[in-house]
Amino acid sequence: MKRILLGLALIASLCVGRKSHAQVNVTDSLALVALYNSTNGAGWGQNTNWLTGTVDTWVGVTVVTNRVTEINLSSNNLSGTIPIEMGNLTLLSTLILRDNLLTGSIPTEIGNLTALTDLQLPDNQLTGSLPIEIGNLTALTNFELQANQLSGTIPIEIGNLTNLTVLYLGTNQLTGTIPTEIGNLTNLTLLYLNDNQLSGVIPIEIGNLTLLTGLELHVNQLTGTIPTEIGNLTNLTVLYLNDNQLSGAIPIEIGNLTLLTDLQLQANLLNGTIPVEIGNLDSLTILNFNDNTIGGTIPIEFYGLTNLNQIFLANNNITEPISDSFGLLTNLTLLYINGNQLSGTIPIALADLVNLQQLGLSDNLLTGTVPIELANLTSLNRLYLDVNSGLTGEFPLELIVLNLTDLKIDGTGICEPLDVSFTDWTATMTTYLGSGISCFTPVVESDSLALVALYNSTNGPAWTDNTNWLTAPVSSWTGITTGEGRVQEIILPNNNLSGSLPAEIGDLDSLTTLSFNNNALGGTIPIEFYGLTNLNQIFFANNNITEPISDSFGLLTSLSSLFINGNQFSGTIPIALANLVGLRDLGLSDNLLTGTVPIELANLTSLNRLYLDVNSGLTGEFPLELIVLNLTDLKIDGTGICEPLDVSFTDWTAT
Q1: What's the pTM?
Q2: Helices then strands (H, E): number in the chain?
Q3: What dihedral do alpha carbons 471, 476, 479, 482 form, nearest 10°?
Q4: For 508-517, what is the mean pLDDT?
Q5: Distance (Å) of CA 61 to CA 57, 457, 472
Q6: Which residues face 515 on adjacent strands?
C-alpha cells in the first residue's frame, strides 16, 4: 500500500506546473512504476527520466493522448518478473522486452491487453506455461516468445489469433501436440515451433496457412508422415522438418513448393525414394535429406536444380553409380553423399564443380582410382573418400595443389605416394587419415638390374647402409628415388662403396642426380655413363678414380653441378667441358691434372663456382678471357697457375 501511495504522489508531483505535458492515465503510470520496480529499474542499461520526468519522456515509452501505447525496452538488462499490473495497460499496442533477464511466468493478466499488435518477449528466462488468456489478444500480428524456458502445451486458444503474421515459439520446452487450431491462423507468414519437445503428428490443418514463407518444426519429437497438405504452402521459401521421428515417403506434393530455397528433412525415419517432383524446386539452394532410409536412385530431374549450393544425402540407402550429371550442378559448394550404397567409379565430371569446398563420398561401394581431374577443384578444402574398400591405385600427386584441411582415405585400397611432396602436403592438414598402404610403383626391369649391378660391383654387403637393397621394392632402397617407374636419383655419400662403377649404370637414362661423394670407388668411369644425358648433378668427390677426365663429360649438357675433386684424375682439363653451358659449379680440386686452364671455359656463362686448387701440375697464366664469368668462388691455390698482373684480373677477383 505504501508503494502505491508513493507512486501516486510521485506521479502527481510530475504533473504540477508542466502544462506542456498532458497528464498520463494514472493506472498506466502505476503499471510502469510496477514494471520498473519489478525488473530492477535502477540496474537497467538505460532508464532515462524514469520516475523523475513526465511519463512521456521515459526512455522506451510512447504515450498517445494520455495513454501508454508502446513499451520497447529490448536489450536493457531488465531482471526479475513481469508484474501483473502490466495487464492494466489496456491501450498498449506494442510490448517489446526481448533480450533481457526476465524470469518467472507470463502473468495471466497479459490477456487484458486486447489492443496489442506486437508482443515480443524472446531471449529471456521465462518459465511456466503459456496462459490460455493469450487467446484474448486477437489484434496480435507479431508474437515472439522464442529462446525462453516455457513448458506445458500450446493452448488451443492460440487459434483465436487470426491476425497473426509471425508466431515464434521455438527453443523452449513445450510439450504435447501442435493444436489443430493452428490452422485458423491463415495470415501467418512465419511459424517457428522448433527446438521444443512437441510430439504427435503434423496436423493437416497446417495446409491452411497458404501465406507461410517460413515453417520451422525441427528438433521436436513429431511422428507420422509429412502431410500431403504441405503442398498447399506454395509461398514457402524455408521448410525445416529435420530432427524429428517422421516416417513414410517424401510426399510428391513437395514439388508444388516452387519458391523453396532451403529444404531440411534430415534426421528422421523417412523412406521410399526421392520423388521426381523434386525437380520442380528450381529455386532450391540447400537440400538436406541426411540420416534417413531413403533408397532407390536419384531421379534425373534432380540434376536440373542448378541453383543448388549445398546437397546433403548422407547416410541413406541410395543404390546406383554416382551420376555424371552431378557435374551440371556447378554452383555447389558442399556435396555429401557418403554413407549410401553408391557404386562404380568416381566420375571425372565432378571436376566441373569448380566452386566445391567440401566433398564427402565416404562409406560407399566405390571402385577404381581417384581421378586426377579433381585437381581442378581449386576451392576444395575437405575431401572424404574413406571406407570405400574398392578404391585403389596411387593417390594422385596432381591433387597436392589443393589447399585441403581434411583428407580421409582410411579404409580404402588407395596407396600413399612415397614422394616427399605428398608427405609435406598432408602434414599441413588439420585432419589426415591415411590408408596405411604405401605405394611401390614397379621400377622398369632394366633400372632394377642396373642397381643390382651397382650393388654387386661396389661391394653392397659392406656398405654402411644398404637398407632394403635386393630385399624390398626398389623405391624403398636407401638412397634411391623413383618416379613413374624409373630411377631418378642415387644418393649414397659416405657409405663405404668400393670397387668400380658397372657399365649397366648407363641404363639409368632417367637419372638426374648421382651422389657418390666420400666413398672408395676406384678404376675408371665406364663409357656407358656418358649416355646419361638427363643428369643434372654429379658428385664423385673424394674417391679413387684414376683416369684422365674424359671428353665425354661434354655430352652431359644438362649438368648444373659437377664435382669430381679429390680423386686421381690426370691429364689436362678437356676443352669439351666448355659445352656444359648450364654448369654453375665445377669442382676439379685435389687431382693430378696438368697443363693450362683452357680459355674455352669462358663459354660457361652460368658458372659461379670454379675450384682448381691442389693440382700442382696445372701451370701457365690464368686466362684473362675468363673474367667475363660472374664467379662467386675461385680457387687456384696449390697449383702452378700464375695470376695475371693485369688490373682487370685483380678487380675481378676482388668482387
Answers
A1: 0.71
A2: 5, 42
A3: 120
A4: 97
A5: 7, 99, 85
A6: 491, 539
